[in-house]
Design a protein that fits this description.
By secondary structure, this protein is of the alpha/beta class. It has eight helices and eight strands, in the order ααβββαβαβαβαβαβα. It has one domain: Rossmann fold (3-Layer(aba) Sandwich), CATH 3.40.50.1820.
């Protein structure tokens, strides 16, 4: 029943029939209050979901950031990782992102990125108060934007970055994302799937070329045969295996 309720929230937010405030209110009614924290940036309060590790040891904290068409409790990839990683030594924090843009270009992106960056900075502060390493997992447009923030040192760099079908709909902006991935030195796992749109698919080759040219260490690209959201168990295996490989 819980997954069905959260799925209905996803459909509402994806089709624009509910505001961020509406979705956050529904999440607060449906999830245990101990999972919910309200943080505040310069503009407004926003919802985060926090879970503590269920192991006697703590590896660190994973910040989970949905695509801007989804929410912090999305019953897809983000939520599966949020509720599963705690059994393997990780605290998790999932955050609500600003409402999606109707058109994506360099001008509309500036305002959105300012709000997004302000929220992420507060979440990073929260995570920094916890022991261990810091990993960011980000999906879709959120994942794309984070690379430029890291590359330009607009946010504190994590110890690892996992991208899930990260892209921007504008071709030129998406090319800048590929360049940023190759230029920042954060260990990066770049996960895509065969059902991704043409922009994501076209990005895979240029990202490999640019990371090899810049001799970026610890960049791995993986393409799943199924959808990232429809096969979360396989996604978890890729994520956990990579974290183990880089020593976390």
């Amino acid at each position: 029943m819980r997954e069905i309720l959260l799925a209905s929230l996803l459909l509402l937010s994806a089709y624009g029939r509910a505001t961020e405030f509406d979705v956050a209110g529904d999440i607060q009614r449906q999830l245990p209050p101990e999972e919910i924290s309200m943080l505040k940036n310069a503009e407004q309060e926003f919802l985060t979901l926090e879970l503590k590790t269920m192991t006697p040891f703590t590896k660190g904290t994973v910040i989970l950031i949905p695509d801007w068409s989804q929410h912090a409790a999305s019953p897809r990839a983000i939520n599966f990782l949020r509720t599963t990683l705690i059994d393997y030594g990780w605290n998790t924090i999932a955050m609500m992102v600003p409402e999606p843009l109707t058109t994506v270009d360099s001008e509309t992106l500036i305002s959105y990125q300012t709000d997004f960056q302000g929220r992420l900075a507060e979440v990073l502060k929260r995570a920094a108060s916890k022991p261990g390493n810091l990993i960011i997992v980000a999906q879709g447009s959120s994942g794309a934007l984070i690379n430029t923030m890291i590359q330009s040192e607009q946010i504190s760099a994590p110890q690892g970055l996992i991208l899930l079908s990260a892209y921007l709909a504008d071709v030129k902006l998406n090319q800048a994302v590929s360049l940023a991935i190759s230029q920042h030195k954060i260990p990066t796992l770049d996960i895509m799937h065969h059902q991704d749109n043409s922009i994501v698919s076209a990005s895979s080759k240029i990202r490999l070329q640019l990371t090899r040219k810049s001799m970026k260490e610890l960049y791995r690209q993986r393409t799943l045969t199924g959808s990232i959201d429809d096969d979360p168990e396989w996604l978890f295996k890729e994520v956990y295996g990579w974290l183990t490989y880089i020593g976390y």
